[in-house]
Specification:
Layout lengths: L62 E5 L5 E6 L7 E7 L13 H8 L12 H7 L8 E5 L4 E7 L4 H16 L5 H18 L2 H13 L14 H6 L2 H11 L5 E7 L3 H12 L23 E6 L6 E8 L8 H26 L7 E8 L5 E8 L5 H18 L3 H20 L6 H13 L7 H12 L4 H11 L3 E9 L6 H13 L25 E7 L4 E6 L4 E6 L7 E7 L18 H5 L7 H7 L8 E4 L4 E7 L4 H13 L5 H10 L3 H5 L3 H13 L11 H6 L2 H7 L8 E7 L3 H9 L30 E5 L6 E8 L7 H25 L7 E6 L7 E9 L4 H17 L4 H18 L3 H8 L7 H14 L3 H11 L6 E7 L2
Parallel strand pairs: 2-6, 7-11, 14-18, 19-23
Antiparallel strand pairs: 1-2, 3-5, 3-6, 4-5, 8-10, 8-11, 9-10, 12-13, 13-14, 15-17, 15-18, 16-17, 20-22, 20-23, 21-22
Helix pairs in contact: 1-4, 1-7, 2-27, 3-8, 9-10, 9-11, 9-13, 9-14, 10-15, 11-13, 25-26, 25-27, 25-29, 25-30, 26-30, 27-29
Length: 958
C-alpha cells in the first residue's frame, strides 16, 4: 500500500483539515528542526554507519545496534511484555523519489511483488505461510511505500523458533530473491490500479496542488508514490527488476526486531540470513531534489469540489541537514514549546464566540529532505476565508512582534513534562510494534535512537532557566524563508482569485496587533463532591482477576488491575442505556456529542480547565453507543483522582456553552459535499442507517437537519447523563483499593440514582429486507470508481454464542476466498473487505457483509463471484488448511487483545448487569478453537442465503 502520514496536529473540530493531513500518499516526517547553534553542519552518514558514530547523543542502552560486513544495519530490542510477541520491520532506503521517468509508480509496484513469488516461496504462498503461523494479511502482514522509503512489516503473535525463522526467511526473500515474473506482474496490475483509483480523492488532489505550489520546480511534484497510470498499465517486469537491483541493496537496508526473544540468538539468525547478501550491477543513486527558488508573497487558489475551505500560510527554506546533537535537540525543544504556545492561542480563537475559523494549528515540517516548511493551517467556515486568513496572519505577527509570555511558556513546559514523565513510567511495557516504529522512525531521519528517560533528561536540561525571550527568538527563526506562500483550498470558485487572497493578506497586515493578555490564575474548582460514598457490596470474579463493587448510592464499579502497560489506567463511565433510550423516529444528534466536553463546566471553561490541569494526565470523550452514554478517559496512577473528578464534574455541572456546538454545526455545513465526492464517502455516510432499516438513531443527518439542529435538542438527548444509573469500569495500573477510593470520593459521593428496574428496549431494530435488485447510490467522483456491497442478516450474539463464534470463523474464510479470487486470481481490486457483527444489545440483529472497490463495469461480476463463493461455502466443507489459515490468525488476534487494557475495558462493560458477558469472555478462545469445518458449513447455510442477500452499489453520477 501507499504509506499515509499522521495528521500534523490535532484539531478540536469534527472535520480534519482537508488536503493537509492524513489523506496524503506519503509518510509524514514531523520533527521540528531549529536553528540552534553548536550542531555539526552538513554531516552525512557513511553506508552502514549509525548516527551515534558522529553525534554527541548517546543511544538507548537497551537497543543493540549492528552492521553486517555488506553494509546492512540491524537494531534489536528485547521486550518481554507482552510475553511471546515481536515486531519485525525491514526498511529499504528508497521510494518513489528514486524512480526514473519511465519507472513512476514502480517502487510501489515492487512492494506488491514482494508477495508474489521468490526463489524459495512460490507465488501465492507467502501470505498462506504467514496465516498458518497466525499472522493475518493486512493486520499483521503489510508494507508501505513512500517518497523516500519502503517498509515491510510483520507482527509476530509468537516467538517460537519456527515463527521467527520463517519470518526472517520471508524478509530475506523480499530483500534479495524476488522473481518479479512477467505473468505475475500482469496479474498484479489491476490491484495496483485499483489502489490508484481508491486513493484519488479530492483531499489527495488538493494535497498535490498544495505541494506543487509550495515546492515549485522540485522533484517531489513529479514522483508521487502511486505513480503514473500509463506506466502502471504498461511497464514490463524488467523495469521493476531494474529498480529492485539498483536500490534493494544491503547498504540501503535496515532490519529492526523488537520483542520477546534472546538477543544473541536473534542476532545470529540475522547474520545467517543476510550475511551473504551481495548484489551485482551498479547501485542506484539518490536524486537531486531540486533547488528552492527565491519567492516573496504569493497566493494560489485551488478549487476542488468535495473539500472544506482551508488555508495554509507557509514559509519555505532549505532543509536542515545538520547531524543529530544535544544542541540541536535542545533547540528543537525550545522551538516546539513556542509552537505549543501559538497553537494554544489559535485554539482559544477557535473556541470563542463567532470564531474566525473552525480550527487552526502551526508546525514545522521536513518535506523529505527537499525543503523545510513552517506553516499555519486553518479550516475556514463556508464563505469566511478572509476572516480565517486575517486571524492566522494577525496571530503570527503578534507572536513575532510581542513574543511569548513567560506564563504561557510555563504552562506548556508543565504539559510537555507530564507527557515525558508518563512515557518514562510506561517505558518497560511498550508494545513491540511501538518500539520497532520508534527505532525505525529515528533511524530514517538519521537521528540517534534514545530512551524515554534520555528524552526527559534532555528536556529538563533544555528548560532549566528557559526564558520566554529565548523561545520568541527561536520562533522568529522558524518563520524565516521564502514567502509567505498562501494556499487557499475552496470547494467553489473564489471571486477575485489569487489577487483577492493577496489583497486580504495585505489588508490584515495594515491592522496593528496588541500584546497577548496575561493569564488569569485559576484553581481547579471540583476537588470535592461531599462525603465519600460507602461500599455496599463487593464481589470477586477470581478467574477474570476482576472485582465488582456497588456503592450505597447505586453506582457500580468494576476494577481489573493489570500490568499490561505500566502507568496506564483506562476509565469508562457508562450512564443509562444509550441509543436504547432514544426514539427510533428522531434523528440522533450523536454527531454533535463532542460539544458536551467542549462546552466546559459551570465553574470553568474547557480552555481554562486544560490550563489549570496542564501538569496532569487525564482525558474526556463522550460516545453514544447502543448500550450507554459513555465518558471515557486515560490517566496514570497519580492522576486517577483528577480523572474521576473531571468525570464527576461533567456529570453534575456541564455548562452546555453554545460555542462548541455552533462550531461543529458550522463544520458540518459542507460535510455532505465531502462525502458525495467519493464512492466510499457515500457508503460510509449512508450504510449504518440502511443496515438498521432507516432507524433514525443510525441515519446520517441531512444538510437541513444539521443546519436546524439546536443545542437544546442535544441536551435533551443526553439528559440521562444527569440522572440515569452509573457503571464505572477501571482497568490498568492500579489497585482495587485505590480505584475504589477514587470513585468513592467522586461518583460514589453523588446523590443516589435510581437502579435500573427493567430491561431497556432491545427489540424492534430490523435488518432491511433483500431488494429485488441492488439499491443504488451515486457519487460525484471519478467515473471509474464504484463500490459493491452485499450483506446477509444473522442474529444477535446471545441468541447462540457458539453459533456467533462459528460465524466469525466463516467471516474469516469468506475474507480469504474473496482475497484469493478478486485480488490474487483476477487482480480486480486492491482490498476486498468482509465484516461481521452479532449485536450484544439488539435482539435478533446481526449481519455479515462483503464489499469491494471496483470499476462500475465489474459490479455484476462481483455480485456473481460473491454468490458463487457463498454457494460453495454452503454446500462444501472447507479444507483443513483453509480452516486453520482463517481460525489461527483470529485466535492470535484475540490472544493479543487480551493482554491490553482496552480489551478488558470494553469486554467488562455491562458485566455486572449481564453475567452472560463474562461467560462470553471465558468462552471466546476455547469456543473458537473448537469450530470445525462442519460448523462453518452450517453457519454458511444459515447466513449466506441468496434470498436474504441485501445489496447496494455506489456508482458515478450520470
Amino acid at each position: 500500500m501507499i504509506g499515509s502520514p499522521r495528521a500534523a496536529l490535532a484539531l478540536i473540530v469534527a472535520i480534519a483539515l482537508a488536503g493537509f493531513s492524513g489523506v496524503a500518499p506519503l509518510k509524514a516526517q514531523t520533527a521540528l528542526p531549529s536553528g540552534a547553534a553548536g550542531s555539526p553542519a552538513q554531516a552525512s552518514l557513511e553506508p552502514g554507519q549509525w548516527p551515534q558514530a558522529i553525534a554527541d547523543v548517546a543511544p538507548d542502552p537497551e537497543v543493540r545496534f549492528g552492521t553486517l560486513p555488506n553494509g546492512m544495519r540491524y537494531a534489536l530490542r528485547r521486550q518481554t511484555i507482552p510475553e511471546g510477541q515481536a515486531a519485525l520491520r525491514l526498511r529499504i532506503d528508497a521510494g518513489s523519489l528514486m524512480e526514473t521517468d519511465d519507472q513512476q509508480g514502480l517502487a510501489h509496484f515492487l512492494e506488491h511483488m514482494a508477495f508474489n513469488g521468490s526463489e524459495a516461496v512460490p507465488e501465492g504462498e507467502m501470505i498462506k505461510i504467514l496465516e498458518r503461523l497466525g499472522l493475518a494479511f493486512g493486520a499483521d502482514t503489510n508494507a508501505s511505500t513512500g517518497f523516500d522509503e519502503t517498509i515491510y512489516k510483520l507482527d509476530l503473535p509468537r516467538t517460537d523458533a519456527e515463527t521467527v525463522s520463517t519470518s526472517l526467511m520471508l524478509l530475506r526473500e523480499t530483500a534479495m530473491s524476488l522473481l518479479i515474473a512477467q505473468d505475475a506482474v500482469d496479474r498484479e496490475r489491476g490491484i495496483v490500479l485499483s489502489e490508484e483509483r481508491a486513493r484519488d480523492t479530492p483531499p489527495y488532489r488538493l494535497y498535490k496542488s498544495r505541494l506543487a505550489f509550495l515546492l515549485r520546480d522540485q522533484r517531489l511534484n513529479d514522483r508521487y508514490p502511486i505513480g503514473d497510470v500509463e506506466v502502471l498499465r504498461t511497464a514490463p517486469a524488467s523495469a521493476i527488476r531494474d529498480f529492485y537491483q539498483a536500490y534493494y541493496r544491503p547498504e540501503r537496508t535496515l532490519l529492526v526486531a523488537a520483542g520477546d526473544f534472546d538477543l544473541d540468538a536473534m542476532e545470529a539468525q540475522i547474520v545467517e540470513a543476510f550475511g551473504g547478501w551481495t548484489v551485482e550491477g551498479p547501485a542506484g543513486v539518490d536524486p537531486d531534489l531540486g533547488q528552492i527558488p527565491t519567492r516573496g508573497l504569493e497566493a494560489r487558489v485551488a478549487v476542488e469540489p468535495g473539500v472544506q475551505a482551508a488555508l495554509q500560510m507557509a514559509w519555505v527554506r532549505t532543509p536542515d541537514e545538520r547531524a543529530d546533537s544535544l544542541a540541536r535537540r535542545r533547540g528543537e525543544v525550545v522551538e516546539q514549546l513556542g509552537f505549543s504556545v501559538l497553537n494554544r492561542r489559535l485554539s482559544a480563537l477557535a473556541r470563542a464566540s463567532d470564531p474566525p475559523f473552525l480550527g487552526a494549528g502551526a508546525f514545522v515540517n521536513d518535506e523529505f529532505g527537499a525543503a523545510e516548511t513552517t506553516s499555519i493551517l486553518a479550516n475556514a467556515q463556508e464563505g469566511r476565508w478572509r476572516e480565517a486568513l486575517s486571524a492566522i496572519e494577525a496571530e503570527q505577527r503578534r507572536l513575532l512582534q510581542h513574543g511569548v509570555r513567560q506564563d504561557e511558556l510555563d504552562r506548556e513546559i508543565a504539559e510537555y513534562r507530564a507527557r515525558l514523565q508518563a512515557n518514562v513510567a510506561g517505558a518497560a511495557t511498550r508494545r513491540p510494534s511501538a518500539l520497532a516504529q520508534q527505532i525505525l522512525g529515528a533511524t530514517a531521519e538519521d537521528m540517534v535512537v534514545t530512551s524515554p528517560a534520555q528524552d526527559l533528561a534532555l528536556f529538563e536540561a533544555a528548560v532549566d532557566g528557559l526564558e520566554a525571550s529565548a523561545v520568541s527568538r527561536a520562533l522568529a527563526e522558524a518563520f524565516q524563508g521564502q514567502g509567505p506562500l498562501i494556499f487557499l483550498a475552496s470547494p467553489t470558485p473564489v471571486e477575485g482569485g489569487e489577487a483577492a487572497v493577496i489583497a486580504a493578506y495585505e489588508a490584515s497586515r495594515a491592522n496593528p496587533v496588541s500584546p497577548p493578555e496575561a493569564l488569569v490564575q485559576l484553581e481547579w474548582p471540583y476537588a470535592s463532591f461531599g462525603a465519600p460514598g460507602k461500599v455496599a457490596e463487593t464481589l470477586e470474579v477470581a478467574d477474570l482477576d476482576t472485582v465488582f463493587i456497588r456503592f450505597e448510592n447505586g453506582v457500580r464499579l468494576t476494577v481489573k488491575p493489570t500490568r499490561f502497560q505500566d502507568d496506564e489506567i483506562l476509565v469508562s463511565v457508562n450512564v443509562g442505556d444509550g441509543l436504547q433510550s432514544l426514539p427510533a423516529d428522531a434523528q440522533s444528534l450523536a454527531w454533535a456529542a463532542q460539544a458536551f466536553a467542549e462546552g466546559g463546566l459551570g465553574q470553568i471553561t474547557a480552555e481554562d480547565m486544560e490550563r489549570v490541569l496542564a501538569s496532569r494526565v487525564y482525558g474526556l470523550r463522550l460516545q453514544v453507543s447502543d448500550e450507554a452514554f459513555t465518558l471515557s478517559g486515560e490517566t496514570r496512577p497519580e492522576d486517577l483522582d483528577i480523572q474521576m473528578q473531571v468525570m464527576g464534574a461533567y456529570l453534575t455541572d456541564p455548562a452546555w456553552r453554545g460555542e462548541a456546538f455552533a462550531r461543529i454545526q458550522a463544520a458540518g455545513a459542507t460535510i455532505h459535499e465531502q462525502y458525495e465526492a467519493t464512492a466510499n464517502g457515500v457508503l460510509s455516510r449512508d450504510l449504518a442507517g440502511l443496515l438498521h432499516a432507516g432507524d433514525r438513531r443510525w441515519t446520517f443527518p441531512s444538510k437541513a437537519e444539521i443546519a436546524d439542529a439546536r443545542l437544546e435538542d442535544l441536551r435533551g438527548q443526553l439528559a440521562p447523563l444527569g440522572n440515569a444509573p452509573i457503571e464505572v469500569v477501571i482497568v490498568g495500573d492500579t489497585t482495587v483499593e485505590k480505584a475504589t477510593e477514587a470513585v468513592a470520593q467522586t461518583l460514589g459521593a453523588l446523590p443516589a440514582r435510581a437502579e435500573r428496574t427493567s430491561a431497556a428496549q432491545t427489540s424492534g431494530v430490523a435488518f432491511p429486507a433483500a431488494p429485488p435488485a441492488p439499491l443504488r447510490r451515486t457519487h460525484k467522483g471519478r467515473d471509474d470508481q464504484s463500490i459493491g456491497y452485499v450483506a446477509w442478516p444473522s442474529t444477535d450474539f446471545f441468541a447462540d454464542p457458539q453459533a456467533a463464534r462459528e460465524a466469525a470463523v466463516l467471516g474469516e474464510i469468506l475474507r480469504l476466498r474473496l482475497t484469493e479470487e478478486l485480488r490474487e486470481s483476477q487482480g480486480a481490486t486492491y482490498s476486498p473487505s468482509v465484516n461481521y457483527n452479532h449485536s450484544y444489545v439488539w435482539e435478533g440483529w446481526g449481519y455479515m457483509s462483503a464489499s469491494v472497490e471496483i470499476p462500475p463495469a465489474g459490479l455484476d461480476a462481483f455480485f456473481a463471484d460473491v454468490a458463487k463463493i457463498a454457494a460453495d461455502l454452503r454446500t462444501t466443507p472447507v479444507e483443513a488448511d483453509e480452516l486453520e489459515r482463517a481460525r489461527q490468525p483470529r485466535l492470535e488476534r484475540i490472544a493479543r487483545a487480551r493482554v491490553t487494557n482496552g480489551y478488558w475495558l470494553s469486554e467488562l462493560s455491562g458485566g455486572q448487569a449481564d453475567p452472560r458477558r463474562l461467560d462470553a469472555i471465558r468462552a471466546v478462545i476455547p469456543g473458537t478453537e473448537r469450530v470445525t469445518a462442519e460448523d462453518v458449513q452450517r453457519a454458511a447455510e444459515r447466513i449466506l442465503r441468496p434470498d436474504t442477500a441485501w445489496k447496494i452499489e455506489v456508482v458515478p453520477e450520470e
